[in-house]
């Protein structure tokens, strides 16, 4: 819609509705290629996942997934248009075709995968509910929290998970239920409750960013127990399986590249590798790109421009970022985590 | 009487009541007139000074003005203004391409100039139309980078302008002028009809001055200004029409207007925005999208229109019947009666509540953040999320509040001035 003139807002609306009758391009992938740009729905600002930096450039783990898909389709990770969506509008935006895919901390559940008409193409981040305590308490495990006062926000699955967990372990707790996130944090940091529980990624970012002086992040520990499953991943709508495949394998390619030690720094040398698996992944032995319907150098483009999964994690969430989130479940399967890519062959 | 006589006998007249002048006198009269008042004064003054000292200490004395990142900034005891230094361009202009930030900057300046010029009463004639045409053109050319005026628009403008001129000048202007208006209307109407039928091909006047920037990348102050300004500019005539329609004698027109006003006033703006952003796309065929920004703007216009209509209706009701009858007696038609006699008087009465609504809507535009549009408050929020700079919400919100205050306070002062200016005739 380039034709918007200030003088005829209402008229333009009418004209647009009239012009809107044009048939849908059928395949999402065709539409994306014709447009020359991938439209990716991201969140309106989540530290580490999708966030506009001081120059207005989108960065984060979810953003990197979008960039990887663009790198696979166009060979250029910058050919993405980011549409910030709120939690309420995200599914409509995808259903109505306003965005081609969602990559915005969306938990994979059965109903979303089926009834809403979507396909989750993988898990870019395994999240789950965790506990944060003050180091002074000397607690090492959530099993030692019997009788604790716990800050939690009301009406969420977080609250239900908490009750379930304590009942299952035959422990007692006193909930302090507070609606607003910053008030919960204030209550926790001023000592009104012993424990703060929410998604672990959020706990890490709170610990990195919101600890009031003179306390520091080192005064708080996040307990190892994760009591719920929140697998976050990219989503596409039903109707174009080829596009879904590309989104799925763009993420897997990042994981696979990490597993085989291919990084943005060494990808050029790796092209000379004799390892048949690496030759297949990087398209030296052709076939994979053709099967997927993209350029044979798709993985090279992804790794060179975005990095492998470990690099993206480190840059946005891990040691290289202010959030300092440990790999945990998001470690490769070879190192005790859950990130596992089916073979590219 | 007896008392005075007695005093006079005693040879001493009562002293004239003293009025203490100067600062001391003012202080005594206004702040320390009794023990209770003196105590209140001291306590409140102490409180203000205490807050003031604390604020100056936090915001200036111990503040950090330069830092590379948040943690470094946090080492200081006071405010972290370095955060604003780092983020102000994002807060003002959002995701607009960084190297081209001069474009939204000049767009904002153009809009402010346009608004300021419109405040001057000497401009309230044909000049206003010129100011807004030029101002809007500059603003949107800078923001979009390229504009396309479709032929349809020219026909529409011709039809509307001719129609209004025809109605307004009927029986007043020379036959020659009326003929011009008629011709304009007919050309506009026929052209529009032929264009819709498809006889005339699509054509548009294209102006490509800069690189194209879509509305999805707009953010910050220009978004707030455009939403508020154009939301209200379109809502105002629309509100007038609704108000007139509500007082119409035709039951169908009246019913529609009443129904619309009550429906819109019965729901919160948020629900209208959610309707526009969540429900509307579901009704449209897949793949076709109305620009999200335009959808939000239309929602604001519909909402503001209903409120403005009710305010203007109040103004219309305050006019005595004689005004209507006098206008009829002079042989003016409905359009002339309304625009020359009724509205000038009705609008004058409702200026304070109108500006009140304007101020309210300027702030309400920040609700668009719930549909993912980055207005000024939302870009400020976004600056807070950056983990490199997290932990200084106070500074960012004070900054945002200061900007909002400048706009709202100016509007409120202007309304005060206008109230005095327009009511000179009724003032003693």
Tell me about this structure.
- The complex is a heterodimer of chains A (345) and B (428).
- Chain A is of the alpha/beta class and 345 residues long.
- Chain A folds into 2 domains: 26-126 and 232-330, D-Maltodextrin-Binding Protein, domain 2 (3-Layer(aba) Sandwich), CATH 3.40.190; 129-228, D-Maltodextrin-Binding Protein, domain 2 (3-Layer(aba) Sandwich).
- Chain A contains 14 helices and 14 strands.
- Chain B has a domain at 221-373: MetI-like (MetI-like fold).
- In chain B, 71% of the residues lie in helices and 2% in strands.
- Chain B contains 18 helices and 2 strands.
- A two-stranded antiparallel ribbon of chain B has the order 1-2.
- Chain B is flat and about 100 Å long.
- At the A-B interface, α1, β2, β4, α4 and α8 of A face α4, α5, α7, β1 and α8 of B.
Topology:
The complex is a heterodimer of chains A (345) and B (428).
Chain A: H1 9-19, H2 28-35, E1 38-43, E2 51-52, E3 58-59, H3 61-74, E4 80-85, H4 90-95, E5 101-102, H5 110-114, E6 118-120, E7 125-127, E8 129-134, E9 148-152, H6 157-168, E10 173-177, H7 181-189, E11 195-199, H8 200-209, E12 220-222, E13 230-232, E14 235-237, H9 241-259, H10 267-270, H11 276-281, H12 288-292, H13 298-305, H14 309-316
Parallel strand pairs in A: 1-4, 1-5, 9-10, 9-11
Antiparallel strand pairs in A: 2-3, 5-14, 6-14, 7-13, 8-11, 8-12
Helix pairs in contact in A: 3-9, 3-13, 9-13
Chain B: H1 2-10, H2 22-30, H3 35-61, H4 70-74, H5 82-93, H6 102-119, H7 126-144, E1 146-150, H8 151-169, H9 175-197, E2 204-208, H10 221-246, H11 251-265, H12 269-283, H13 292-317, H14 321-329, H15 334-349, H16 351-364, H17 376-385, H18 393-422
Antiparallel strand pairs in B: 1-2
